[in-house]
């Protein structure tokens, strides 16, 4: 199966996508499918699956973990013989690649609140002014 149409209609495709939806970026509360990080899924007649994916940034702290999680999730699908995952950087990922559901979940519809993604810490850097100043 090499044509795009054949790939779209492959009987394993939906189960593979559902498996991918179980993988989340630990810093963004949305699965990687909805984030638009999966660029291509190729399935051959022997059940071998090749996935091209990207990350939100080349400096992603979990750059090694997420592809491994994708590989493990897809390998658990009945009928999948072998999985390979490649990280690609082109095209560069942008928030426009997210599904509408992900944009709504993250409030990227013009009301994005960066505080939602701020580190959760009580540490304050700097100095408070005091009456003695």
Give an overview in words:
The protein is α+β, with helices and mostly antiparallel strands. The protein has one domain (4-117): Fe-S cluster assembly (FSCA) (GMP Synthetase, Chain A, domain 3), CATH 3.30.300. It contains 5 helices and 3 strands. The protein has helices at residues 4-8, 13-20, 32-35, 65-75, 100-106, and strands at 38-43, 48-53, 82-87. A 3-stranded mixed β-sheet has the order 1-2-3. The radius of gyration is 19 Å and the shape is globular. The termini are far apart. Mean pLDDT is 81; it is low at 116-129.
Fold blueprint:
Elements: H1 4-8, H2 13-20, H3 32-35, E1 38-43, E2 48-53, H4 65-75, E3 82-87, H5 100-106
Parallel strand pairs: 2-3
Antiparallel strand pairs: 1-2
Q: Based on helices, strands and strand pairing, what is the structural class?
A: alpha+beta
Structure summary, number of beta strands: 3
Order of the strands making up the biggest sheet: 1-2-3
β content, as a range? 5-15%
CATH H-tier superfamily: Fe-S cluster assembly (FSCA)
Rounded to the nearest angstrom, the radius of gyration is 19 Å
Low-confidence stretches: 116-129
Can you count the helices? 5
CATH topology: GMP Synthetase, Chain A, domain 3
Kindly give the count of domains.
1
Determine the mean pLDDT: 81
